[in-house]
């Protein structure tokens, strides 16, 4: 399964359009992690299914009907998507990690910081009193709408099988 991941588009859709066009093959799913989740209405997704969550800047837009968090299982993995502001993402991944461990998730996709990042906590670690039976992966695609680091607008991809989890970051120039 190939998942294309966006966050923090903040009303700008051109970066998402370009990222979709860059994909070597059509993704199976597009995920938007908030702060511009309503922007998906203006994006032609070529029939690709879309999941999104609401971010802290989505309170006064059409995105108010979008949930703050979604959890689902795919190929034996439990995935949680959230924006990250409710779990202190700008201060680190600890809050999201504890939440993931408490609900048995092994993949957390989040945004909010505008900074691409990837963290893996190995199996056997104790998180919030829970000993992890398998690793927890935390992934932030950065911002597809605001270029704050001068490196272009960033997005992410997740290639997922029942045995492998592979993340990558991509950049588009506007």
Describe the structure.
This protein has 174 residues and is mostly beta strands. It has one domain: Metallo-dependent phosphatases (Purple Acid Phosphatase, chain A, domain 2, 4-Layer Sandwich). The chain has 2 helices and 12 strands, in the order βαββββαβββββββ. The protein has helices at 14-22, 94-103, and strands spanning 2-6, 29-32, 50-52, 69-74, 77-82, 107-109, 117-121, 126-127, 130-131, 136-140, 153-160, 165-172. The two termini are 28 Å apart.
Report the major sheet: 5 strands, mixed
Q: Can you tell me the CATH superfamily? A: Metallo-dependent phosphatases
Number of helices: 2
Name the structural class: mainly beta
Rg: 15 Å
Which architecture per CATH?
Answer: 4-Layer Sandwich
What is the topology?
Layout: E1 2-6, H1 14-22, E2 29-32, E3 50-52, E4 69-74, E5 77-82, H2 94-103, E6 107-109, E7 117-121, E8 126-127, E9 130-131, E10 136-140, E11 153-160, E12 165-172
Parallel strand pairs: 1-2, 2-3, 5-6, 6-10
Antiparallel strand pairs: 1-11, 4-5, 7-10, 8-9, 11-12
Compact description:
The protein has two helices and twelve strands, in the order βαββββαβββββββ. With 174 residues, it is mainly beta. The longest helix is centred in the middle third of the chain and has 10 residues, at 94-103.
């Amino acid at each position: 399964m190939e998942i294309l991941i966006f966050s923090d588009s903040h009303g700008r859709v051109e970066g998402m359009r370009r990222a979709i066009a860059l994909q070597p093959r059509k993704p199976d799913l597009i995920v938007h992690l908030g702060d511009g989740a309503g922007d998906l209405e203006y994006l032609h997704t070529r029939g690709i299914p879309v999941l999104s969550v609401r971010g802290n800047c989505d309170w006064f837009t059409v995105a108010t009907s979008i949930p703050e968090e979604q959890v689902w299982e795919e190929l034996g993995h439990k995935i949680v998507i959230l924006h990250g502001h409710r779990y202190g993402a700008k201060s680190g991944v600890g809050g999201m990690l504890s939440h993931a461990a408490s609900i048995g998730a092994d993949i957390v996709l989040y945004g909010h910081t505008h900074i691409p990042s990837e963290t893996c906590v190995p199996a056997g670690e104790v998180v919030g009193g829970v000993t992890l039976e398998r690793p927890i992966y935390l992934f932030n695609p950065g911002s597809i709408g605001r270029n704050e680091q001068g490196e272009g607008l960033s997005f992410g991809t997740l290639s997922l099988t029942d045995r492998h989890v592979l993340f990558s970051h991509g950049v588009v120039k506007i």
